[in-house]
Specification:
The protein is of the alpha+beta class. It has helices at about 50-65, 110-115, 120-125, 135-145, 150-155, 165-170, 185-190, 205-210, 245-255, 315-320, 330-340, 375-405, 420-430, 440-455, 460-465, 480-495, and strands spanning about 5-10, 15-20, 25-35, 45, 75-80, 85-90, 100, 160-165, 180-185, 195, 200, 220, 230, 240-245, 265, 270-280, 290-295, 305-310, 345-350, 365-370, 410-415, 435, 470-475. The protein has a seven-stranded mixed sheet. Strand 10 (about 195) and strand 11 (about 200) form a beta hairpin. The longest helix has 27 residues, at about 375-405. The protein is globular, with a radius of gyration of 22 Å. The N and C termini lie far apart (about 60 Å). The model has no long low-confidence stretch (mean pLDDT about 95).
């Protein structure tokens, strides 16, 4: 029996492939970055062809690094940046336009029009989402309005839409020569086009945004025992593609949050805190999103989650490095921030793409407050790390208000959790224990779990829990007066960031 599972984790800044054995241990891995394209202020694009080429390269390199025969690999899974929108021609396989990234704000006028027409309550009731530039539905509507010839092709059935998972699955399973056009329930739930309870495309919402139904992929479970299709081409030929999850839901699965009330926070380009809420959607009253958590198997019961989405966290550290030149590498931020005892009264609110949960202010922009002659480079770097933690606190408080559950611990993952100072600050600012697992790349692991469950490598979630282990637990050290004072300062800074664009 095949003992290994491969997973492609296609993220905002790069693409990783990892090969796991039955114990959830990494047998081989490879990673490649791709270009970040900023054609205008607030606009963010990726090259879909570059992403596809990188996905093929990392798959080949990871299989080589694992040193196992392809016959030993039972299945392939995919995790992906969720709301990024791609449109391409079904006959040529060529994109009509660069991918519009989840951070991109170009669909702001469409969103404001929907709100002005009084449609947000209906959209929220149907989808569990607020009206925001974050989601892919308004992005596709923008593309249909602005790309010459796209609407005509879409109405003829020649143009296809998908999030990055659909783009990769279609191409890996044959592209113009029989590629499968599908998405899973987690990614579909992030489009602002899917009825959350029925898990089908909503015809009213398609009509509201003038999106032809023929463009959309079929909605399937996150773990597909029959496989969505088999990989075609020189790399991975014949591998059954059995699992697809949006990256944050993949991390939830990778962290084994299978019981209602279990929660994780992933620190990547942004941060995404998800709490498993069970087999029914929980409407949010506190500025969070109701979303699909996962559906494992065609007969498996769909599970739901509450999510707090934060647009800019790790990207703020990249901004310090690439735009301001204050640090030479992201890893350097820990030592620089640790060189001062606190941020010296400085707060950075990184609302570069507006504010997401729980504020949902498209007109917010980034601010730095509390500057004095005392302020140094180290204070700005520390304030950036604190901003990551304060944004998580805002979301956690909203989550506890919606769920009625006081979290005793928060599981964490993603690249930034290697920063011990950041994790200690997170525990201090939350007043909650923070638990870091042995394997920090839980997004790829979750995609592998979804595929491996479908292929029979693992039999049930209990098999997966046996693989999960703790690397380190961070206990809060601040006293309550310090925690409260710091949070009051953060809230004042956020108020100054709101509504900046007139």
């Amino acid at each position: 029996m095949a003992e290994y599972v491969a997973a492609i984790d296609q993220g905002t800044t790069g693409t990783r492939c990892m090969v796991f054995d039955r114990g959830g241990r990494v047998a081989g891995a490879h990673y490649l970055e791709h270009r970040q394209i900023f054609p205008r202020p607030g606009w963010v694009e990726h090259d879909p062809l570059e992403i596809l080429a990188n996905a093929r390269r990392v798959l080949e390199a990871a299989l080589d690094a694992a040193g196992v025969s392809q016959r030993a690999v039972a299945a392939l899974g995919i995790a992906n940046q969720r709301e990024t929108a791609v449109v391409w021609n079904r006959h040529t396989g060529l994109p009509y336009h660069p991918a519009v990234v989840w951070q991109c704000t170009r669909s702001e006028e469409i969103c404001k029009r929907l709100i002005a027409e009084g449609l947000e309550p209906t959209i929220r009731e149907r989808t569990g989402l607020v009206v925001a530039t974050y989601f892919s539905g308004p992005k596709v509507a923008w593309l249909l309005e602005h790309v010459p010839g796209l609407r005509e092709d879409a109405e003829r059935g020649d143009a296809l839409f998908g999030t990055i998972d659909s783009w990769l699955v279609w191409n890996l399973t044959g592209g113009p020569r029989g590629g499968v056009h599908v998405t899973d329930v987690t990614n579909a739930s992030r489009t602002m086009l899917m009825d959350l309870g029925r898990r089908t495309w909503d015809e009213d919402l398609l009509n509201i945004l003038s999106i032809p139904r023929a463009m959309l992929p079929a909605v399937r479970p996150s773990s597909e025992p029959r496989a969505y299709g088999a990989v075609v081409g020189d790399v991975g030929a014949g591998l059954p593609l059995c699992g697809v999850l949006g990256d944050q839901q993949a991390a939830l699965v990778g962290q084994c949050c299978f019981r209602p009330g279990e929660a994780k926070n992933t620190y990547g380009t942004g941060s995404f805190l998800l709490m498993h809420t069970g087999p029914s959607p929980v409407p949010s009253q506190a500025g969070l999103l109701s979303t699909v958590a996962y559906q494992l198997g065609t007969a498996g019961e769909c599970q739901y989650a509450l999510e707090g989405s934060i647009a800019i966290t790790g990207a703020a550290v990249q901004w310090l490095r690439d735009n301001l030149g204050l640090i030479a590498s992201a890893a350097e931020s820990e030592a620089v921030a640790a060189s001062v005892e606190d941020a010296g009264g400085v707060y950075l609110v990184p609302a570069f793409s507006g504010l997401y949960a729980p504020h949902w202010d498209m007109d917010a922009r980034g601010v730095i407050t509390g500057l004095t002659r005392y302020t140094t480079r180290a204070h700005l770097v520390r304030a950036t790390l604190e901003a990551i933690c304060y944004q998580a606190r805002e979301v956690l408080e909203a989550m506890e208000a919606d769920s009625g559950i006081r979290l005793r611990e928060l599981k964490v993952d993603g690249g930034a959790v290697a920063n011990d100072l950041l994790m200690q600050m997170q525990a201090d600012i939350l007043g909650t224990r923070v638990v870091r697992p042995v394997l920090r790349e839980t997004t790829a692991l979750g995609a592998a779990y979804a595929a491996g469950l479908a292929a029979g490598v693992w039999s049930d979630p209990d098999d997966l829990r046996a693989n999960w282990g703790v690397d380190r637990t961070f206990e809060p050290e601040w006293d309550e007066p310090r925690r409260a004072a710091g949070y009051r300062g953060w809230q004042r800074a956020v108020e100054r960031a709101k509504g900046w664009i007139e």
